Structure formats: structure tokens, C-alpha cells
Amino acid sequence: MSHTIKIFSPATVANVACGFDILGFALEAPGDIISVSITDKSGLSIRNEIKGMNMPLDPDKNTTTVAIQAYLEYLTVNALTYASAELSSMLSGKKGVEVVFHEKIKPGSGVGSSSASAAAGVFGLNELFGKPLNKLELVQFAMQGERAACGSAHADNVAPAILGGFVLVRSYTPLDIVTIPYPDDLCVAIIHPQIEVRTEDARKVLRKEIKLKDAIQQWGNIAGLIAGLMKGDYALIGRSLQDVIIEPIRSMLIPGYDEVKLAAMEAGALGCSISGSGPSMFALCQDRATAEKVSKVLAKTFDEMGIESHVYVSGINAEGVRVA
To answer: Parallel, antiparallel, or unpaired for β 187-193 and 175-180?
Structure first.
């Protein structure tokens, strides 16, 4: 059995406009690349090989190792069910885990930096143990990495990072995750203005209560978006990509948000909104050619405001986290 494995874990777009904390999809790029190794030294350790990238090296604070610890605690309780030579050595303290970062999504970018790391860690170790759990079962542990990052164990990033595709979190208690069919040609333009919005801070600005009429409109948009994806109805997808609850507040954290969104829509996007907690923005498009056009318009608009940005064009990543 191999003792080291290299993993690619994709960036993700969470919320998808109307689906705060319950909708997300995986991107083809960017992503994290990490190695997970079973070592002869007990405990968890982290090594960062990325120049210019700072990250917590304390296993109790890094999202990857927090997720791995949650995974190991679960296997400890169920050791008889999932017994293997590697696992037995790990649980007896004879073996440990080392995580090495080779590439990393920029933290605070709004495309699931913390979730990609958490997903990569638990997936990689699960592979080394001979896959005692399936991908869906791994989501609960990756969520604990998210809790360490922002104080909330949400799944709208980690679920698509692990499972790929479009994902709906129908319930958190109990955890119930549903994959949603979507049109094969669907594509997205992502722009990351070079400012940072911390997820924890972006959550603090949200209202604790909402008006019933806003909730009704939001529920309709969520249902419409899922129906549009499943039917391949681009017009319905476009009409449903509206957020009347979160976007009006969080958009104030992104300079020039309204101008950038308008430019994306005029260039042919089905809809445009905040990716996760921002500052990245996403524009869903009917095909790659339109997404390429929209990406150029997004970059030009930010450039005219004197804000440097990075752009990506991606299809929907159907596979999710994988062996690199």
C-alpha cells in the first residue's frame, strides 16, 4: 500500500446567488494540490512549500488537519468496522500524518480556499486507508475544517469540492446532500479583484432576521434555479439567479460591484453574483464562448476602476477532488 498520495481539490462557487449556505458547484481550476503521507512519527504535521503563501502550521488551526482529525476520531470510534493495518498503526500512535502544500487557492478569495484544503486532506487519507468511506461520507469531516476557518460548519463549498458538479444541501440536521443535474455546456466566468474579504467578517454583516416577502421571493428563486438546471432551461436559470437577501449587504464590501454586474449581464451572462462571501464574483453563461467574452468585460471593468484582478473561465467540474 502506498504511504504518500498527491491530491487535487477544486475551487468552488458557493451560494450561487439565491442559495445561501445550501448551493454550490465545483470549478475545473484553480485548486489546491497537496500531498498526504502516512509517516512513522505520530501526530499531525504540516509543511508549506508555496513561496509567499502564509498559512497556519498548527494542526489545531489548519483546515486540512482539523478535518483529518475529525475523520480519524470517527474511525477511532468505529475501529472494528474499518480495521486495517495502516489504520490500526495510526490509532495506536505508531504512525502519523504529514500534509504538504504544493499549490493553494488564495485565502479570502471567495472560491473555497479553506474547503478545498479540508476536502483534499480527508480524501487523501481515506484513499491511503483503502477507501473505508465513500465521498459523500467524507463531507461531514471536511465541514469541521470550515468551522475552524470561519466558525461555521457549512457544506456549500466542501460538498461540491468533494462530490463535484452542482450540489444542494437540503438539510444540515441531519446532513442531507443532493447532486443536481445541469446542462453540459454551462460555463462560468470568475473574477477575483485583488482585495480580501474574510468569510468570518462577511458573515458578521448579515441581518439576523429577514422580511417574509423577501424569503418568499428567495425560495422561488432557489426552486427556479434547480428546476432550470435540471431542465436545461437557460432562461429560467437566468431569471432565478437573483439574491434579495445576502447580495444587497455583501455587495457593499466589493468596490464597483453594481458596475461589474451590469457589464457582465450586458455581455451575455445568464446571471452574475458574489462567489461565496466574496470578493470574487461569478457569471454563469450558456457556453464557453460567452464566458470568455464576459471574463474580458469583467476584467476591463475592474481595470478601469484601478483594481487589479484575476479571471478564470471554467466548465462545471463533474469529478471534484481526485488523485493528482
So the answer is: unpaired
CA pair distance 81, 131, nearest whole angstrom: 13
Q: What does pTM read for this prediction?
A: 0.92
**Closest to 254 measured CA to CA, from 296, 309, 291, 207:** 309
Q: For 52-93, how does the pLDDT look when each residue is reduced to its tens digit (9 = 90+)?
A: 888 889 999 999 999 999 999 898 877 656 666 666 666 666
184: pLDDT confidence band, cut at 50, 70 and 90?
very high
Q: Give me the pLDDT at residue 34, please.
A: 97
CATH topology for the 4-179 domain: Ribosomal Protein S5; domain 2 (3.30.230)
C-alpha separations of 316 from 138, 155, 250 in Å: 21, 18, 25
Question: What residues act catalytically?
Answer: 146, 199
C-alpha cell at 58: 498548527
Beta bridge partners of 272: 283
What pLDDT score was predicted for residue 193? Answer: 93
Spatial distance between the Cα atoms of 313 and 292, rounded to a whole number of angstroms: 6
Residue with cell 475592474: 302
Cell 502506498 -> residue = 2
Question: How far apart are alpha carbons 143 and 119 in whole angstroms?
Answer: 9
Contacts of 29 (CB under 8 A, 6+ apart): 10, 11, 312, 314
Amino acid code (one letter) for 203: R
Distance between CA atoms of residues 139 and 147, nearest Å: 13
The answer to whether the CB of 23 falls within 8 A of the CB of 166 is yes
Enter the C-alpha cell of residue 182: 445541469
Alpha carbon distances (Å) from 55 to 9, 35, 47, 203, 295: 17, 16, 10, 21, 29
Answer yes or no: are the C-beta atoms of 294 and 300 closer than 8 Å.
no
For the chain, domain boundaries: 4-179, 187-315
Helix, strand, coil distribution of the chain in percent, nearest 5: 40, 25, 35
Residues 102-113 have pLDDT tens digits of: 999 988 888 999
Q: Has domain 187-315 been given CATH number 3.30.70.890?
A: yes
